[in-house]
Amino acid sequence: MAKDIENVVKKTGEMSLNAKAKAFVPRPSATPTTLEAAAAPKPMSISIGGLSDFQPSPAAKEPAPIAPSAPVAPATKPVAAPAAEFDAALVADGPLPDNAVAEEEMLLDEHFKEHMNVIFIGHVDAGKSTLGGNILYLTDMVDKRTMEKYEREAKEAGRESWYLSWALDTNQEERAKGKTVECGRAFFETSKRRYTILDAPGHKNYVPNMVSGAAQADVAVLVISARKGEFETGFERGGQTCEHAVLVKTAGVRTLVVAINKMDDPTVGWDKSRYDEIITKLTPFLKKTGYNPKTNVIFIPLSGFTGAGVKDRVGNACPWYQGASLLETLDGLQAVERKINKPLRIPISESYCEMGTIVSGKIESGHIRVNQKVMIMPERRVCEISNIYGMNEAEEQSAISGDNVRIKLRGIKDDVVQNGFVIVDCKYPSHSICEFDALLAIYETKKIITTGFKSVLHVHTATEEITLSKLLHKVNSKNQRSRMPPQFIKQGEMCIVRIQASKPICVECFSEFPQLGRFTLRDEGKTIAVGKILKLVNTNTVNTAN
């Protein structure tokens, strides 16, 4: 396995979001003739999930390493993309509106605290929900009386040590089994930032739910159990520690905080040698996954149950660690650039009926306001935003790129909206396609993949069955394409392929919109390949609002 990964490392480059990449240009409806005339895509390097050492391009600056003991900076506004980029995004449809800059400043004033989406990942029973529940308690998002109620109920059920996780695991199935099934969501706030916690399930049966959560994340917290035997179970073949790290890297998460949990366990006792052992084993794998351990990975020892190292520093319990706590580390991370004035894109992660149609998801770009008309793709249904709900169900008048919100829609039935649909601006809709060309890197499979191979595609929050209709060009270690199409591809190889979806999905080319252009393929409960979209075939867009 390690040898296969190392072979692929030499063939691939970095796939993370480039801060200076070409601006997203919404294109008008294209006829099949126009698309067929398009030039074939040039070979592109790729580094996703376990496939490449992290080698930043000259155009992409890496976040500066965080000094563990650095003081927390005061609250800052979200970082917006320059207005010049917006000008480029509208070059095909007209000049930048005169009030665009003033509107951006007004939105930043309304949302003066930056919002960050943090996903908690790791093997089952690593303590993700317990850690998340304790964060909610320590930041006063869950009051003491409610937590005491959870403690009594957990004790009556014979699950006394699970009570903190019940702040995130709210349904009876999750509480009875002690396993997170759906990707839970909660909010908390510090003096500097607002945060959304995405509590991902750790069991391998629920990885598709974890993938949907990873698509919404800005930062990942990989929770590792330091208890004897538990780290080894999660890290070895079949454990979810490795697969989760691969999936968040594929989803575009560039910063990984490794929380080494349960350091207070009797089998560990805050032992530095155990902490160093875990780092020594984990670092080479994370490097192969595409993370730079010096600049993109931060290790923190803590106890999610007692709260040591979560909000406050560990202190005397761990004299050999003088670094920052988990919340101090999150507050010290570099601000994420937000595309506030770009075309609206909100992949829907959840939809249901509650006195009307309710959807939730992360605003990948653009901004929304109450009473704004939007379009649901790929159904092309025009509707209106009647309510926006932010932190703790508080009603908001607007929301900007990066916010994780619930939206009540007017003029559309709930049975029309599905997970994976995308909310877009009526004037600049997304592409709705069934076929596209992609650069595919085979991560792990024992099968020989040929034309007609069927798999399950995960792209942003959408899940769809697909078929590899053509193998176009094999890509070698020098990023050169073969002239003749290959007969098959296998583990460790890269190929430009044509993918046929069973029904229309909303995607974009990776070069234009990375969040909607990267994907994973899963088969028989395992992640077998990762890739990025190079060219859309037979696009179907709408460019006029009803």
Short note summarizing the structure:
The chain has 546 residues and is α+β, with helices and mostly antiparallel strands. The chain has helices spanning 2-9, 32-36, 83-89, 100-110, 128-138, 144-156, 172-177, 207-214, 230-235, 240-250, 272-289, 326-331, and strands at residues 79-80, 114-121, 184-189, 193-199, 219-225, 255-261, 297-301, 337-338, 345-347, 350-353, 357-362, 367-369, 373-377, 381-389, 395-396, 398-400, 404-410, 422-425, 431-442, 454-459, 462-475, 494-507, 518-523, 526-537.
Describe this structure as you would to a colleague.
With 546 residues, this protein is α+β, with helices and mostly antiparallel strands. It contains 12 helices and 24 strands. The protein has helices at 2-9, 32-36, 83-89, 100-110, 128-138, 144-156, 172-177, 207-214, 230-235, 240-250, 272-289, 326-331, and strands at 79-80, 114-121, 184-189, 193-199, 219-225, 255-261, 297-301, 337-338, 345-347, 350-353, 357-362, 367-369, 373-377, 381-389, 395-396, 398-400, 404-410, 422-425, 431-442, 454-459, 462-475, 494-507, 518-523, 526-537. The strands form 5 sheets. Strands 9, 10, 11, 13, 14, 15, 17 and 18 form an 8-stranded antiparallel sheet that branches. Mean pLDDT is 78; it is low at 5-76, 80-96 and 541-546.
